[in-house]
Amino acid sequence: MAVLKEGSRPPWIGLAAAVWVQIAAGSAYTFPLYSPALKSVLGFSQQQLTIIGVANDIGENVGILPGIACNKFPPWVILLVGLCLSFFGYGVLWLAVSQTVLSLPYWVLWLALVVATNSSAWMGTAVLVTNMRNFPLSRGTVAGILKGYIGLSAAVFTEIFAMVLSDSTSDLLLFLTLGIPIICLAMMYFIRACAPASGEDSSEHVHFLFTQAASLLLAVYLLTTTILKTILSLNNSISYILVGVMVILLMSPLAIPLKMTIFPSRHKRPGKLDGSSNDLTEEEISSSQTASLLTPISSEADLGSFREGEDISEVDMLLAVGEGAVKKKRKPRRGEDFKFREAIIKADFWLLWLAYFFGVGSGVTVLNNLAQIGIALGVNDTTILLSLFSFCNFLGRLGAGVVSEHFVRSKTIPRTFWMMITQILMIITFLLYASALSGTLYAATALLGICFGVQFGVMIPTASELFGLKHFGIIFNFMQLGNPLGALLFSGLLAGYVYDTEAGKQQGSHCLGPNCFRLTFLVLAGVSAFGAFLSMILTIRIRPVYQMLYAAGSFRLAQASDH
Predict the structure, then answer these.
(1) Under a CB-based contact definition with an 8 Å cutoff, are residues 532 and 427 in contact?
(2) Where in the cell is it found (predicted)?
């Protein structure tokens, strides 16, 4: 049986495969591409359409089940569930929009979209949890890269939609129905748990830089080609070539394991822990990561001969504690592994959840209504608007990982500081939208895309640093519930109602002019202000903890290699 050594090819192959799965998992971001067809073909009102958009967000972000499953099953099982959900969910939507089946009830379509986009939660959980555990010393960087690619997925699907599918909504839904399962089947073998490295390596830093540069090049390419397609008349041959180049750029992370195969490193770091991905259970991998990341704080945590994980009844443990054979285990502290029920009673948990809720809830409201916002403000073709948001969303996710990783290592500044800064910028952004000044639509959309992306890039590594990696899957998926709840409150109830009310005044089904969303934007500005306030409180609370952990060497820092 082959042995997978730390720093060897398999973790990097898994990261390269995860890029493709993340693109597939971003199918939920294609809603603005086919939402106009849902409205016109099926005759929905704007409020009905925004409620359908809430189904999109609920499915994408309700990941409690995959969060639990990722600690019990290997990644390929989680991916298999995801591809089945995608096939059946998008298949039903395709049947409705293509009018292959007529008069499907509204509740069936709502449920189908929940099922379709819930595949994103299963796929995203499988690759994110696996890669965070495979690279535990670079959590912010890995989260930024993977969440960056899922942010780019909207631009990838927009490129395919415009250049290959000729703007056909029914063809797009058929592509999602068949294409996502094919990608998952092709990649599931390569996404597996590996023994993490026991220390930092300069080559790993270079590899991450290459991956980040490749993703940035892809983002610039997607934005450029989408604009070219809009302003120029490109024939089919050129369009197919441009899509082919996009596919090659998506494959660029494979250059790292290819380079490691052709030019194997002869340098061996001391203290390597070899292990097979087939022999290591999730608990063993998580335990080894915890041991390498955290130093023991007190001998009181020692249970003597009773090691965690052994089959010991509660009665035996209580008797042993009473007789003095062992000392009662203390509750975990910040930075150690929390069980979900232990994390959910902490103030830090709810401060992070609320700050994330206000940040992404307000951002997703604009995303779900971006096509209607553009049309209301005089932009008939919203393709560029969506691509711009996708590109800047990617920059925010990738940049949040890079910038927060740098400052948390060099200055011990908590990542939530950047959540606070971007939510302050979101106040300005929503006021720009509300003003409807000439030339501000694209600038506001770009700024909002960056700020929206930062919320994801900050929340994920922060949750792992405060509450550990062992139960990270369920903890971060619970955090993500802020997205659909925000969409329900701010998009489904607020934005939809305001839009339909204004459309009624204009005596039509479509609303034109800045008043269609002005009240919504003013409310979202207030929401962002409150989110920034909560982020500030959380940052102040956890700053001393970061200083203590990093000063004590509990997290392996890059600076250690400089001494």
Answers:
(1) yes
(2) Membrane
Among 50, 34, 114, smallest CA distance to 365 is for 50
Highest mean pLDDT: which of 6-10, 414-418, 557-561?
A: 414-418
Over residues 182-207, mean pLDDT: 80
- Count other C-beta atoms under 10 Å from residue 314's C-beta: 7
Q: How far is CA 396 from CA 390, 400, 413, 505, in A?
A: 10, 6, 18, 38
Read off the pLDDT of residues 88-143 as tens digits, 9 standing for 90 and up: 999 999 999 988 888 888 899 999 999 999 999 999 999 988 998 888 777 778 88
Tell me, what's the pLDDT at 251?
Answer: 93
CA gap 230, 268 in Å, rounded: 52
d(CA 511, CA 538): 40
DSSP characters over 140-174: HHHHHHHHHHHHHHHHHHHHHHHHTSTT-HHHHHH
Distance (Å, rounded) from C-alpha 126 to C-alpha 282? 12
Q: Read off the amino acid at residue 517.
A: F
Dihedrals phi, psi of 555, to nearest 5 degrees? -105, 135
Other Cβ atoms less than 10 A from the Cβ of 553: the count is 11
CB 487 within 8 A of CB 391: no
pTM of the model: 0.73
The H or E element spanning position 343 is: helix 340-343
299 pLDDT above the threshold of 50: no
Measure the CA–CA gap between 492 and 520, rounded to whole angstroms.
Answer: 11
Q: How long is the chain? A: 563
